[in-house]
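Q:
Just now I want nothing more than another pair of eyes on a protein record. Here is the record:
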Amino acid sequence: MQPRRKRTTGLQRVMSSPLLGVPLRLRKVRNWWSLERCVLRRLYSTFAGGSPGIGLLLMRLVLGAALVVRASSAVWGNPPINTMVMSTFLAGFGLLLIPGLWTPIVGASVALLETCQIMTVPGDQWVPLLLATIGGALAMLGPGRWSIDARLFGWKRVEPPPRKDSFIS
């Protein structure tokens, strides 16, 4: 006899899908609906190695260096406070991207900030568009094997202890 599958509604399926790395589960408790946070074990099943991993490493290095250089050049002089705050955030995001720490969050934040800059700052919009595109791509593709994220959150190799045979003395 097979166990019965639990029926879910469309709303439950939507709410149980991962949203920015924090999946939610909808549960009914005494005629009330409750949202529960589920623990997300891994954001990426594997971290790309080989040629794709080198490509992701180059993307991280280029985006991080471009963010740091643009932010440091915007801070020189006497900029308004909103430019100073945005440049500080972008420089910090660039410094996090270079070693590959919190890459999905940082990439999405860079894409959001650069998109805001495209909409609000007049002038040449091609550089912020390129940086927003690379940030969004890194948020979706992941950091690659050569990153701190892969070392902290990647697959671990577990070696079982040697077996003790009772027949061999």
Summary: Helices lie at 10-15, 50-75, 81-97, 103-120, 126-141, 148-153. The chain has two domains: 11-41, 50-153. The first strand starts at residue 24 and ends at 29. The radius of gyration is 22 Å.
